[in-house]
Specification:
Layout lengths: L4 H30 L5 H30 L1
Helix pairs in contact: 1-2
Amino acid sequence: MAYTKADLEMAERHIAQGKRHIREQVDRIELLRSGGHATEKAEDLLRLFLDTLAQHERHRDLISEELKAT
């Protein structure tokens, strides 16, 4: 697949958005804990966010490498 600079920019936006989601989810978990609430489901979602972020970062790196090669 031929990637463009726009693809790289989109991947960077996805990474930034993912990092925001992670920060917000960590804050939610802390709030739940401080209120004595269960956090298992919130922690599961955080793990999903972290996995998704890693996928976005790998994709960004792939795009970046391809753009450097052209």
